[in-house]
UniProtKB/TrEMBL annotation:
This is TatD related DNase. It holds the Pfam family TatD_DNase. A divalent metal cation 1 binds at H8, H10, E94, D207. A divalent metal cation 2 binds at H132, H157. InterPro entries: Metal_Hydrolase, TatD-like. It comes from the Eukaryota.
Length: 294
């Protein structure tokens, strides 16, 4: 059976938290053996930690997402350092920059400051960081250059940047992670970009409960991430998400991302699953990680 690693998701999200045990089991049954679960604010770091303590397959990540920086407490950075210190298996994420329709309402100087603090922390701790970037790739490159390189890796999650930026980002230590959002890119553009990404830096993810694949491979089962559908909280990811149940993504849908990316790369699904799995194991094998044999 194909083995997959969901390199970025949010199984602690209030829309699916209650059904997370079921989602993890169903995804595991299809061959998804690990889930990098990313916290987004001080309010959900404890949920990510609990999930990691319960499920050996969950790799915890703690970070303050740019959409939630206005809710931060004065102690946010110390709290984050505390979570990372008490959870050696954790990486940093989700952090980032956003100039999209939601992100542009959030002070960009603050975004840069908070992103940089967390990126420095990841580097100091020799851990990878999972990065969100919407319409701010120029700023991202500048910051990565000034603080980098990042030998432990930086995961550019749901990467939708240009093909031209790939080599520079690669040099700084970037991994390129693809989710269902890639299906919203023009196919020829996505294909060109994918072909520029060195194979040892390709990752696959679902960003569940967001990024529900639009283009579904009819040969594969499609999973609906049922859960709490009437949440009023802001959803993470692209702006066009709604919280309705049929839009809630499931980590088992990574098979649709695999099928789509493999087709664009003109590669066998099996080969892409193996290489993206090996890449994920490499980046998440820092000191203290659950993936490192004691
Ligand atoms: Zn995310």
């Amino acid at each position: 059976m194909i083995k997959l690693f969901d390199s970025h998701c949010h199984l602690q999200d209030s829309r699916i938290l209650k059904s997370a045990p079921k989602l993890i089991k169903e995804a595991l049954d299809t061959g998804v053996v690990n889930f990098a679960v990313n916290g987004v604010s001080e309010k959900d770091w404890h949920l990510v930690k609990e999930m990691s303590d319960t499920y050996p397959s969950v790799i915890p990540n703690f970070g303050l997402h740019p959409w939630f920086i206005s809710d931060r407490t004065p102690d946010w950075l110390d709290t984050l350092k505390g979570f990372l210190a008490s959870t050696p298996s954790a990486a940093v994420g989700e952090i980032g920059l956003d100039k999209g329709s939601f992100g542009k309402k959030i002070d960009f100087t603050d975004q840069v400051e908070i992103f940089s603090q967390q990126l420095r922390l990841a580097k100091e701790l020799n851990k990878p960081a999972s990065v969100h970037c919407v319409r701010a790739f120029g700023d991202l490159l500048e910051i990565l250059k000034s603080l980098g390189p990042f030998p432990c890796g930086v995961i550019l999650h749901s990467y939708l940047g240009s093909a031209e930026m790939v080599p520079e980002l690669y040099k700084l230590g970037a991994y390129f992670s693809f989710s269902g959002f890639i299906m919203s890119m023009k196919e020829s553009k996505a294909k060109k970009m994918l072909k520029c990404v060195p194979r040892e830096r390709i990752l696959l993810e679902t960003d569940a409960p967001d990024a529900r694949p639009k283009l579904v491979d009819s040969k594969l089962e499609f999973f609906i991430g049922s859960g709490v559908s009437n949440s009023k909280e802001v959803v993470i990811g692209e702006e066009n998400n709604s919280s309705s149940e049929e839009n809630i993504n499931h980590p088992a849908n990574i098979h649709h991302v695999l099928a789509y990316v493999a087709r664009l790369l003109e590669m066998e699904e099996k080969e892409l699953s193996e290489l993206s799995y090996e890449n994920a194991v490499r980046i998440f094998s820092y000191e203290g990680s659950k993936l490192v044999q004691k």
